[in-house]
Amino acid sequence: MPSIYKVSLTPEALEDFEEIILNLRGITWLSSVRKWANKIINKIESLAVFPEGHPMYEYDERFRSAKVGKYRIIFEISKDEKIVSVLRIVYARRNLKEIGDLKIDYK
After folding, report:
1. In the CATH scheme, what architecture does the domain 6-98 have?
2. What are the extents of the domains in the chain?
3. What pTM was computed for the model?
4. 5 burial class (0-12, 13-18, 19+ CB within 10 angstroms)?
5. What is the mean pLDDT of residues 29-46?
6. In angstroms, what is the C-alpha Rg of the chain?
């Protein structure tokens, strides 16, 4: 039976998600916004099972990356605590060196 992890989002990841939704609302139909929001949410929820199956984040091997269409979810796995922390959700074509340091607020 696969390990089940608890999945949490950092404040930065929540802000990223809200920004994605707001940007999409300005350029596409509401049904398309819902579709992308659901795809991102489903991918985040799927990280609870076998998050190690996703590749290492190319700029910092402490983290992993999962793609959802044109977006990238960057996350960290704590195997001891069984927690997946979603750190950022960004446009996949964004210059990833900009977020390479991943200055995260772990409140």
Report:
1. 2-Layer Sandwich (3.30)
2. 6-98
3. 0.84
4. buried
5. 93
6. 14
Tokens at residue 68, please?
């959802």
How much of the chain is helix, strand and coil, in % rounded to 5?
Answer: 40, 25, 35
Sheet containing 64-68: order of strands: 6-9, 83-91, 71-78, 64-68
Pairing of strands 6-9, 83-91: parallel
Q: How distant is the alpha carbon of residue 52 from its chain centre?
A: 14
- The answer to whether residues 45 and 7 touch, using CB atoms and an 8 Å cutoff, is yes
pLDDT given for residue 100 in this prediction: 52
Distance CA 94, CA 9 (A): 20
Task: Determine the Cα–Cα distance for residues 19 and 84; give it in Å rounded to an integer.
Answer: 22
Chain position carrying tokens 């195997």: 79
